[in-house]
Write a structure and sequence with these properties.
Elements: E1 2-3, E2 7-15, E3 18-25, E4 28-39, E5 55-62, E6 67-73, E7 79-80, E8 85-86, E9 90-96, H1 104-116, E10 120-126, H2 133-145, E11 151-152, H3 158-168, E12 173-177, H4 184-191, E13 217-220, E14 226-229, H5 242-245, H6 250-258, H7 285-304
Parallel strand pairs: 4-6, 9-10, 9-12, 10-11, 12-14
Antiparallel strand pairs: 1-5, 2-3, 2-5, 3-4, 5-6, 7-8, 13-14
Length: about 300
């Protein structure tokens, strides 16, 4: 039996010229039906070609064969280039506290990248069974000073895992963003029992993990929530105009929201300007200042080109 009526769907997997699309109605799955689709030729030559996470309209639906045709692409809310995923609602910046050891500069870099994508950003700390409760609490307080309330995960504690699952099920489309070896694959294998991606230990020579995930795919957690399984991240260097950098630091952006008077100058960069109302006594201020100077230098170079 086939239908010519159009349905909204979500692309959950892509391979060659084929797409798996979950049929949706008002963003809720209809009997969890998944269709194997090809796109119309007119879509294949567009620069914004279809990727996992895209919302699409499909027609020529064959319910018996579970096949359909993708008619058009619905406008994206956001797009992550490497890996290519569209319409992310929540990013969990994921780092292990040990094996590999926590690198605060890398944590800061990924948090800023996530904030730049303008999606809800959380911090997830894994392998907390390898540190003392006292050190765990010290790390929590440190990251609270950054403007984040980190979720800590000890997989030996079922309550930690269940708390994370419950949180993920309240999101529309979540992704774990972090370096290899921090436990993302192990975690996804527990979240999605049928996934069973291979895991790899951390290289003792380079102190980094080996990437084990190969394809980008969305997995349904319930009728409203998905999590992305990705082959890792290759972050492009982001060049942000100096006036926007403060918005990527909760330590500053929260002060701006709460300060009813504001700085003396509307274009204040919170560096050395007179009348600046921002309290600069926070952990990442040196890093913030470094990014501002780099952005200003880029601007001067561009003016000279």
């Amino acid at each position: 039996m086939s239908s010519h009526s159009s349905k909204k769907g979500l692309v959950t997997k892509k391979f060659n010229e084929f797409f798996y699309v979950d049929v949706k109605d008002n963003f809720k799955l209809l009997d969890k039906k998944r269709f194997l689709c090809k796109s119309r030729k007119s879509l294949r030559f567009k620069s914004d070609f279809i990727f996992v996470g895209d919302e699409v309209n499909i027609s020529q639906i064959n319910c018996a064969e579970r096949t359909a045709i993708i008619d058009n692409l619905i406008s994206r809310k956001n797009f992550l280039e490497r890996p290519a995923v569209a319409n992310i609602s929540d990013i969990y910046v994921t780092f292990s506290v040990e094996e590999p050891k926590l690198d605060f500069s890398q944590v800061s870099k990924l948090l800023i990248h996530a904030e730049y994508l303008n999606v809800n950003t959380s911090l997830l700390l894994t392998k907390c069974d390898l540190i003392t409760d006292n050190l765990r609490n010290v790390l929590i307080e440190k990251f609270k000073g950054w403007g984040y309330h980190p979720k800590t995960l000890n997989l030996e504690k079922s309550s930690d895992f269940q708390s994370l699952i419950n949180d993920l099920k309240t999101k529309k489309c979540s992704i774990l963003m972090g370096p290899s070896g921090v436990g993302k694959t192990t975690l996804l294998n527990r979240i999605i029992p049928n996934l069973q991606n291979p895991t790899a230990s951390v290289s003792f020579k380079i102190k980094r993990g080996k990437n084990t995930t190969r394809n980008v795919e969305l997995f349904s957690l319930n009728k409203d929530s998905y999590i992305v399984d990705t082959p890792g991240f290759n972050l492009n260097k982001i060049e942000i105009a100096s006036k926007y950098i403060a918005l990527l630091f909760p330590e500053i952006s929260n002060q701006i929201k709460q300060n009813q008077f504001g700085c003396k100058f509307n274009d204040c960069l919170h560096i050395d300007e007179p009348g600046c109302q921002i309290n600069k006594n926070f952990d990442r201020y040196k890093y913030y200042r470094k990014l501002i100077i780099e952005a200003k230098n880029r601007n001067y170079q561009n003016l000279g080109d």
